[in-house]
From TrEMBL:
Signal sequence range: 1-17
KW Signal (keyword) present: yes
Localization per record: Cell inner membrane; Periplasm
Name of the protein described by the UniProt record: Sulfate ABC transporter substrate-binding protein
Entry's Gene Ontology cellular component terms: periplasmic space; plasma membrane
InterPro entries listed in its UniProt record: ABC_SsuA_sub-bd, NrtA/CpmA_ABC-bd_dom
Annotated source species: Streptomyces nodosus
Amino acid sequence: MRRGLTVLAALPLLALAACGYGSNAENDPAPQKVAAGAKKIDGLDSVKIGYFGNLTHATALVGVQKGFFQKSLGATRAKYQVFNAGPSEIEALNSGAVDIGWIGPSPAINGYTKSEGKSLRIIGGSASGGVKLVVNPAKIKSLKDVKGKKIATPQLGNTQDVAFLNWIAEQGWKVDADSGKGDVSVVRTDNKVTPDAFKSGSVDGAWVPEPTASKLVAEGGEVLLDESSLWPDKKFVITNIIVSQTFLKEHPKAVEAVLRASVETNKWINAHPDEAKAAANKQLETDSGKALPADVLDPAWKSIQIIDDPLAATLDTEARHAVKAGLLKDPKLDGIYDLTLLNKVLKDEGESTVDAAGLGVE
């Protein structure tokens, strides 16, 4: 598994957003005041942070809204960009337009492998879960009824697409990964339009992340399967923290400051779930111009676990699923993680350290 990488060139594989629901990339949507007397870190004027306008990026949403990142960075200003898709965030990281970002596992894998291990490192975790198979109950009453139906996923080769293709294979059904044709029709549909496609009947269900899953439920859909039920301890990575290797090497103190803010934010979220949910929704409104209604926000929020652990073993498994589906060939993920600074922060906070599952830097 962890030897020699070649991504199949014919497909836009694993470069796509883990979530893909949110606003367009936007410069500094939440400029914040710097505390009086604060000092710059590493002499930096700013640190550029990227994230998606998704609930699965709750750490970033709440950290921005409540000012945790700016507080930790002192007089070094936190600047933000909001993205819709993984490829654009990876491009921004590679160009230096973003230094650190919250992103899904598939674009992180692709960004790392396409650069032959030179572009980024995963330096922390952020969220687990929040992915469901939601179906039209009039057409699909059991898992076996999925056969022969039209099921949406966000994009070819994205995190949910890979998971659904793997689940299909485990049922003994056959689907061509590229075309989506076979025993199940896999329809690649942007998360923003999937609810309308579901409502019109052009798809019978969808394997999608939150809040799209809860939007479908609000349209009369029923949750047939929660992906977390398929994983050990019901945990699997949905959002990572990545950093440019150049920025990590040149500004480790700034990276540590962002990680410290992330750990503090996660602790606050888990201690104040209702306040955190409101803060995340307020930031979503700031970023996209529209807050989520309660019938979507509440169930979506409950299905997402906010964590510091990047759940490295599950990323390895997700890569294996992509290989099984024919979307990756011989991926080399050795060194994709550098959890040194995260574990330093966790030790300082009296928390348990986390493991890179054999995929850390040597």
